[in-house]
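Hey all, quick one. A colleague (J.T.) asked me to put the zinc ion job into the tracker so the inputs and the structure tokens live in one place instead of scattered across chat threads. No bug as far as I know, just bookkeeping. Sequence used:
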Amino acid sequence: MITLQNLHTHSQWCDGKNGVEELLLNAMEQGFDSVGFSGHSPMFYAPEHGIAEGDVQGYIADVRTMKDKYRGQMEVFCGIELDLYSRLDLEPYDYIIGSVHYLKIHGEYVGFDRNAATVKSVIDTYFGGDGLAYAKAYYQTLATLPTRGRIDVVGHFDLITKHAENVSFFDEDSPAYRRLALEAIEALLPKAPLFEINTGAIARGYRTTPYPSAFLLREIQQRGGGIIISSDCHDMHRLGQSFGDAIALARECGFTHTHVLTEQGFVPISLNDMERKLKA
Ligand SMILES: [Zn+2]
Ligand SMILES: [Zn+2]
């Protein structure tokens, strides 16, 4: 039975630090019983940030080879972190994490998953300095993820709050902001019922708490949505980064279960089981 799994994992095929095999060996030492790789999909508008077009088959083959090699010791899955505007056949992958890192504005692809100064310049240049208009563009874009086909997990739902502990571009507690986020949750839930609790920004020093905010997680829970817990790993030593905090946050927001991917698809597992494995 899989109880400790990370499905949001980047390797050297995109912008991660580690090779697939060394990461798996390290994951076993850390007590994980399953890892899914979610390389950034090739982005013609940002080739340096995704898997190279010509490397897609190599990536899949590498992960599948390791899946066979470590069968019985570690359950390995081959997924992709799909950026909304990537042109990619989704058929070969075991699961799809759908994410928005770019906004399409007047035909231009504008990256905002950057440092705070860049975000400020995006808001000034494209939204007349109006942070709420930026939030609106993000959530309305995110809500269209299912138009790409199968999306199993919504990645870092409120990614635009990455810098909120240091710089305020909009008021996360305002009814106007919350309405925008809730509209996106309602649009996504029927087609992408799993949202990730993502601890990646903690590993990289941007935040002290995971995405999404407790308010939004409670709303997801009350609307019948599910969760997975993931570290958006770019460094194998941080594969289980703050999983304990994510479990505590999930409980605080009313969840008793998270989900893991198995050969039979996604199944719920109790937070207690994951926590027990984490502490073992
Ligand atoms: Zn991402
Ligand atoms: Zn990622």
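Adding what we noticed when we looked at it: Residues 81, 99, 101, 155-156 surround zinc ion (ligand 1) (CB under 6 Å). The chain has a mean pLDDT of 97.
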